[in-house]
Write a structure and sequence with these properties.
The complex is a heterodimer. Chain A is mostly beta strands. Chain A is built from two helices and 38 strands. The longest helix of chain A is centred in the N-terminal third of the chain and has 10 residues. Chain B is mostly beta strands. Chain B has two domains: about 110 residues, Immunoglobulins (Immunoglobulin-like); about 100 residues, Immunoglobulins (Immunoglobulin-like, Sandwich), CATH 2.60.40.10. Chain B is built from three helices and 18 strands. In chain B, the strands form four sheets. In chain B, strands 9, 11, 13, 14, 16, 17 and 18 form a seven-stranded mixed sheet that branches. The longest helix of chain B is centred in the N-terminal third of the chain and has 22 residues. Classes of the chains: A mainly beta, B mainly beta. At the A-B interface, helix 1, helix 2, strand 7, strand 12 and strand 13 of A face helix 1, helix 2, strand 1, strand 2 and strand 4 of B. Strand 21 of chain A pairs antiparallel with strand 1 of chain B, so a sheet runs across the interface.
């Protein structure tokens, strides 16, 4: 038996027989729904009530044979057996386990009920709730509560692993191809470990990679073993106290103006006591792959971001006051990030007050942030201080949702933990949306301007934007939608000698879909015109048409996609057309032992002035045979061939032409093992 | 004060002359329109886990990559998503007024996930020209894969958006493929925690009166969704949440 975490955060367990099914569910991200449904349903009758009999009921109508009521059971799938003590209308019987109706999947006879969960049940308190009506129409009710744990030593303790290997050997390739290795071996070991007992919980998750090939590898890869990612978490909970520590590949997300979605290597320590919370973190600012940087935790700001936050919840948690401080240094570039070079250094202090006094009808957010930032330590200029403010309100009123925000971000405002933040802007935005029957409308309006300091040497540019989106779902299998956006840029306060700026952009798009059985088709068209009203008159047009038919049947799915992108520069009168044809085909046959998959793109790019005329075909296919039938329950190997074909025809620059076909032998396997 | 004011005026005049005589001829125009020429300040690529690396099962259909692009000025952004050198889709979008934009790989075509091993994703900007290095992110495809492509399941009643009498309500849907079991969930909002759920073997479910009275209120909108499983409890199909309400 193995144990796993459900993405919903609830721990679930499952037998070996269901290992693969859990993996599928995790992959498809639908286990959220599945296990949340099992573990999180909120039927009031299933919460903490014990052995209640409904009014009008005389005496017991069922007897619990197992589990013993209020007992603690050591089992991952605790079965239960209940005996009926008197006749009643069996057709009215409803059986709930932790709020989920399991009547149809239980074995119900004239004499009683037997049920064994198909899924592993989370350790903790559970309630079986029975209801029915007797022959006289009186309501019968009974709740049975019991506890379960998975082992004697721990509420939960498991290690789930999966090792996979992929070996590729080139059958044949053109001599001109030097970047493709003749042989390549890649492996991955996934490890998920968890121990939970009483108030303590520890988890460790990692993916360890192995790579070897007969040509050098490029960054961020390296030959041999490397930990692609890892995360250790520790949690202690006792009454109002909660201590949590995360070390490894962590993510910090405070506010967009301080530290936003900052996923890096490092550590976070959190303490929550009653209404109060405290957090401290130290993470690398460079995004690294593998073991580089160790734990990522340092006590200084050298290429690290350090920070603390403190918060207090007020008025029955309807409001929260929070302070955030972060300081650090960053080179600005990682293998997945490209930005201005130079080492940046900065501090930021943020004060946040959030409230929700009206049950989601009106939430408010107030934020004031103060930064000190030096965009390049190597130049002669020092750091500059600036500030940012935000006032935001939003919520839901029946089917209507709304949000309004005022924002000010100073010219020199910047934070190490949020470097993509637009600055030097002030203005407001409003968003509203409603869905009535089959109609849904969303509207967004905004007005911002730059040059917030009113510098006389520069103009102030006002930016207006309005968007309306309408969708209609009244016709079955035929959803429709249309979207219009208008953007205006208009300058004011131009210094003498500079010409004013006025640019309008109109974007109109429409979409329609049709579904019938296994076939569906979606079509989209978008037209966008940027009208430059200045002397430069640098107008541009962009038009996109896309058609995506799809056929999905057991063992076969075909998803082609056809797109035309047309861009036009009105000054040069140059029009560039790009036709893209994509194909995604997946098929399985011979009792799913053989699979054949194809993915490819054919691209035609052409400019009307003769500067571009290119055709590009890139196709990949894989034919594999699943050998699992010969090695049941040990591993899941497959053998196959993989091919890539690249053909580039450049009629303007023929030296770029390529015609390459490479064929590989591929051996792949997966071996799950758990403790 | 007067002296200071005069000094300031002279400095401003000198600065203005500097801009008019030096900067403009050098092509660094302070002209407002020139100030709005589209320039890319920063590109950051990541997956849904916000990291530049992820591990997925073979034939995953819902893998997404994102590009945060910070820019100044206005103009037409042209670029394309590329996976292992294969162009996946092109992007042609007007950007206006400085700021940042988040681009996402399209649903169709899906990110290729039938070849096991490491795959490299890039977003390449064709216009405006930029000297920024092309960033990349990578995902590892584990050899084992789902035997199925997830299908949509058709639901029959109640129809989407229906308003029905406040009484035990029957929900019906089709049986797709080799479905052995169904899970029907009821929600107050799509994506929220379910109010109630039921495991069933049949293609219909009658909401019990006791559950109806406890959890559902007339006049409020609810959603329902069906997930279907094969014998081994592999998920093989599901439907989009459908809205319904009970009349007051």
């Amino acid at each position: 038996m193995i144990r796993r975490d459900s993405p919903s955060g609830n721990d679930v367990l499952m037998s070996d027989d269901h290992t693969s099914s859990l993996r599928y569910m995790r992959r498809l991200k639908i286990s959220v729904a599945f296990f949340a449904l099992l573990c999180c349903c909120t039927v009031p009758a299933a919460q903490g009530q014990e052995q209640t009999a409904a009014p009008g009921m005389q005496g017991e109508w069922v007897r619990v044979i197992s589990p013993t009521e209020t007992a603690e059971i050591v089992a991952q799938k605790p079965a239960f057996k209940i005996e009926f003590l008197r006749p009643f209308n069996i057709g009215t019987l409803v059986i709930l386990l932790d709020g989920a109706d399991i009547t149809q999947i239980s074995k119900v006879t004239e004499t009683g009920i037997e049920f064994t969960p198909v899924m592993v049940i989370q350790a903790g308190t559970h309630t079986i709730s029975l209801s029915a009506t007797d022959k006289e129409g009186l309501q019968l009710q009974r709740n049975i509560t019991f506890r379960s744990r998975h082992t004697k030593a721990f509420d939960e303790a498991y290690m789930s692993n999966e090792a996979s290997l992929v070996y590729e050997n080139v059958f044949g390739k053109p001599e001109t191809v030097h970047t493709t290795p003749h042989s390549r071996l890649e492996g991955n070991l996934r490890v998920d470990t968890k121990i939970r007992d009483k108030g303590w919980q520890f988890t460790f998750n990692t993916n360890i990679r192995y790579l070897d090939q007969d040509i050098p590898v490029i960054r961020p890869f390296k030959k041999g073993f490397d930990a692609a990612n890892w995360l250790f978490t520790g949690l202690y909970t006792k009454e109002s106290l909660q201590l949590r520590t995360n070390i490894g590949d962590v993510q910090i997300n405070e506010t967009p103006y301080t530290v936003a979605n900052f996923a890096r290597k490092g550590g976070i320590f959190e303490l929550v006591y009653d209404r109060f919370s405290f957090k401290a973190f130290s993470v690398m600012t460079e995004q690294v792959f593998g073991q580089r940087g160790g734990t990522g935790i340092e006590g200084n700001t050298d290429r690290h971001l350090l920070g603390v936050t403190g918060g207090v919840k007020l008025f029955d948690s309807k409001a929260e006051l929070k302070a955030i401080y972060a300081t650090g240094e960053d080179t600005g570039n990682s293998f997945n990030i490209s930005g201005a070079s130079g080492i940046k250094k900065g501090d930021v202090l943020g004060l946040v007050l959030n409230s929700d006094f009206f049950s989601n009808k009106m939430r408010t957010e107030f934020e004031a942030d103060f930064s000190k930032f030096d965009p390049d330590l190597s130049d002669e200029f020092g750091s500059k201080q600036d500030k940012a403010y935000k006032i935001k309100a939003g919520g839901y009123l029946d089917s209507f949702s709304y949000e309004a925000m005022y924002e000010y971000v100073g010219r020199d405002y910047a934070a190490i933990g949020s470097q993509g933040l637009p600055r030097d802007r002030e203005g407001f935005s409003m968003i509203g949306g409603t869905a009535v029957g089959a109609h849904a409308v969303n509207v967004a309006l905004s007005r911002f301007h730059d040059n917030v300091r009113g510098d006389e040497l520069f103009p102030r540019i006002d930016s207006y934007q309005g968007t309306v989106d309408y969708s209609l779902n009244s016709i079955p299998n035929l959803p429709l939608g249309i979207n219009y956006q208008k953007s205006i840029q208009d300058s004011t306060r131009e210094p003498s000698g500079t010409s004013p700026l006025e640019i309008d952009t109109d974007t109109l798009s429409g979409r329609v879909g049709y579904t019938r059985d296994k076939f569906m088709i979606n079509a989209m068209a978008a037209y966008s015109l940027m009208n430059d009203k200045t002397q430069g008159n640098n107008d541009t047009t962009s038009v996109t048409y896309a058609v995506t038919p799809a056929y999905n049947a057991p063992g076969l799915s075909i998803n082609p996609n056809l797109t035309l992108n047309q861009s036009k520069n009105h000054v040069s009168q140059v029009t560039t057309d790009t036709y893209t044809v994509n194909l995604d085909l997946r098929s399985r046959f011979f009792k799913e032992r053989v699979s054949f998959d194809v993915g490819g793109t054919y691209l035609i790019s052409k400019a009307n002035n003769g500067s571009l005329d290119m055709r590009n075909l890139n196709a990949n296919f894989r034919l594999s045979y699943n050998l699992q039938a010969f090695l049941k329950k040990i591993m899941k190997p497959s053998i196959g061939v993989r091919g890539t074909y690249i053909k580039i025809t450049d009629r303007i620059n023929p030296i770029a032409n390529r015609d390459e076909f490479t064929l590989f032998l591929v051996l792949a396997t997966v071996m799950p093992f758990s403790f | 004060m007067f002296v200071c004011g005069e000094k300031m005026k002279r400095i401003l005049l000198a600065l203005r002359l500097f801009f008019i005589l030096i900067i403009i001829p050098a092509g660094i125009s302070p002209d407002a329109s020139a100030a709005t020429e589209l320039k890319i300040r920063r590109i950051s690529l990541y997956f849904e886990n916000r990291r530049p690396e992820t591990t997925v099962q073979r034939n995953t259909a819902d893998l997404k990559a994102f590009a945060d692009i910070a820019f100044t000025g206005s103009g037409l952004l042209e670029g394309y998503w590329e996976v292992n050198g294969r162009v996946l889709s092109r992007v042609s979008q007007h950007l206006q007024g400085s700021g940042s934009i988040t681009l996402q790989t399209p649903k169709d075509p899906p990110m290729p996930a039938f070849d096991p091993g490491t795959q490299i994703v890039k977003f390449i900007i064709v216009y405006p020209s930029t000297s920024l290095p092309v960033p990349s992110i990578l995902y590892f495809v584990v050899p084992e894969g789902s035997p199925y492509n997830l299908l949509d399941i058709r639901v029959f009643s109640p129809r989407n958006g229906a308003s029905v009498a406040y009484a035990p309500l029957k929900f019906t849907w089709e049986r797709a493929r080799e479905t052995a079991h169904f899970l029907v969930g009821f929600y107050s909002r799509p994506g929220s925690k379910p109010l109630f759920s039921a495991y069933i073997n049949d293609t219909e479910y009658l909401l019990p009166e006791s559950v109806l009275r406890q959890l559902f209120r007339p006049g409020q909108k609810y959603y329902w969704k069906v997930i279907c499983f094969d014998e081994k409890y592999n998920i093989i199909c599901e439907n989009d949440p459908q809205g319904f309400s009970f009349r007051k």
